[in-house]
Each structure stands twice: as C-alpha cells, then as structure tokens.
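Reviewers of the previous submission asked for a worked example of the structure-prediction workflow described in the proposal, so we include one complete record here. The input consisted solely of the amino acid sequence. No template or homolog information was supplied to the procedure at any stage.
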Amino acid sequence: MTDEQQGPQMHFAQDDETEKLKQWWKRNGTGIVAGIVIGVGGVSGIQGWRMYQDYQAGQASMYYQQMLVAVAKEDNETVVRAADTLVASHSESGYADIARLMLARLAADAGDHGQAEAALEDLLSVTKDPAMRHTARIRLAVLALQAGKPDRIKTLAAEGENGGFASQYQELLGDALAEVGDWEQAQQAYEAALATMASDSPAGQLLNAKLNMTRQGADTL
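From that input alone, the workflow returned the following structure tokens.
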C-alpha cells in the first residue's frame, strides 16, 4: 500500500513525550474515536433539538410581534394571518394561546359568534395555562350572555375549579338571567358574586346596583 493509498495520517515530532503519545493512541485511539463519534452524535442531537426549539420560539415570537403591530394599525387581515400561522405552526406555545384569543375577539367583533366560539373551544382543548382556560371560559360566557343563553353560562361556571373567577361567572349568569326576566335567579347569582368580593370596591358597587335592580324587578312581578 502506497502512502497515497493510506490516506491522511497523524504525524508526531520524534521525541520521548510524543512517542509515548503515539503508543497511548495505538492502545486507546480507536475507543476514543468511537466515543467521540457517539458522543458528538448525542450532543449534536441535543444541541440540534435545542437549536430547533430556540428557532421555533424565535419564529413564534416574530409572528406574535407581527400580530401586535398589526393590531395597533388595525390591520385585521395581517392580524388574522399572523395568528393563524401561530396556531398552525406553534400550536402548543403561549403565543398560540394569545393568538386564539385574538382570533376569537376579531370574529366576535365581526358578529361571527360561531367562529369566535370555535377559537375559544380550541383554546380550551389545548392550553396548559389555567388562567388562559378561565379566560376562554369567561369569554364563552360573554358570548352566551349576548346570545341570551343562561344555561350555557351555568354549564361553563360548573366546569372545573373557578379559582378567582367565580364572581365573574356569577355576574355574567346574573346578567343573562336578568336579560330574560328571571329576577329571582339573577338576584341569587349577583349575591353569589358579591360573596367573593369587597362590596365597597368599584366592582362590588356595580354588583350592588345590579342586585338592587333585580329586587325592583322582582317586586314588579
């Protein structure tokens, strides 16, 4: 075999330390090379995944910023496009959760309550954030209020723990019941809402006003 056929080789200066290194390499070199190949493969895989995650997060952030800029400009077409991309390509990210809320808001503003509900139901099914889950349910309850569906609000209020949102559910329920003239049930809902907040707070004062209206309504029956 000629030198050209042997391929590239490692060359060392001819001194005692280098000769020791050569002998050591002969004994251990193959294992080291194999270990490096395996190790680099594993590390590069991990690094590659981390780079991919960082890239994905960067992409999600970019579309999120596009969405926010478009919202400020009231460019709904660009808002929808950026939000749709976030939901389709980064569905499990927090950015996508916000995008779903944005799509629901735009649909509701356009009077498309079916599309708004679909976006909120989608958010409920995928989000891991309890606050986002409650936000979606509250907004679904608002849509139910607008549609005059108090039973839907009752169902939403009964789904899981309400955390710090109990008063909002009860207030919306009271609003829906008052809307259909069910004063006694509305009164109970407002009282339940007041039970979880300070009555002298701005929200509490508004609830007290609503409660008084339901009592007046009940007196006229």
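DSSP finds ten helices and no strands in the chain. We consider this example representative of the routine output the project will generate in years two and three.
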